[in-house]
Amino acid sequence: MNIEDAKFVVKDENGVEKEYFKLFTFDSEETGKSYIAYTDNSTDENGNVIIRANTYDPTGEDLSLQPLTSEKEWKVIENILISTQEKLREEMEKEGSDDGEGNITNK
């Protein structure tokens, strides 16, 4: 797996390969770790896209993804996702208009 590629494949604990799409990676000074947020574009029961997050080794020496281990890590990821979503919404609103249901449409 090359973390820098937009698409990557992960084998689960049963050896089944699953394709994911990298959303972004970042390093946190707060935790001293590197993180990746990614999705397979599956949705939950409410239609929201499921986003996963793990820590990873940016040097590429260890190709395994490691779980988040603390509430602090989850909060860091959550704050980044909220910030990213807000920036994306602002950009989309500049290019189009909101239909009142949170959907952006082109003018």
Secondary-structure map:
Blueprint (H helix, E strand, L loop, with lengths): L6 E5 L5 E12 L4 E7 L12 E5 L14 H25 E3 L5 E3 L1
Molecular structure report:
It is globular and about 45 Å long. The strands form 2 sheets. It has a 4-stranded antiparallel sheet, with no helix packed on it. It starts with 6 loop residues before the first strand and ends with a strand. By secondary structure, the chain is α+β, with helices and mostly antiparallel strands. The protein has one helix at 71-95, and strands at 7-11, 17-28, 33-39, 52-56, 96-98, 104-106.
Features:
107 residues; single chain; globular; alpha+beta
Structural class: alpha+beta
Shape: globular
How many E-type strands? 6
Strand percentage: 25-35%
What is the residue-mean pLDDT, rounded to a whole number?
85
Determine the oligomeric state from the structure: single chain
Q: State the strand order across the main sheet.
A: 1-2-3-4
Taking Cα atoms only, what radius of gyration do you get, to the nearest Å? Answer: 16 Å
Q: What's the order of the H and E elements? A: EEEEHEE
> How many H/I helical runs?
1
Q: How helix-rich are the residues, as a percent range?
A: 10-25%
Unreliable stretches: none
Distance between the termini: 40 Å
Largest sheet: 4 strands, antiparallel
Summarize the structure.
The protein is α+β, with helices and mostly antiparallel strands. Helix content is 23%, strand content 33%.
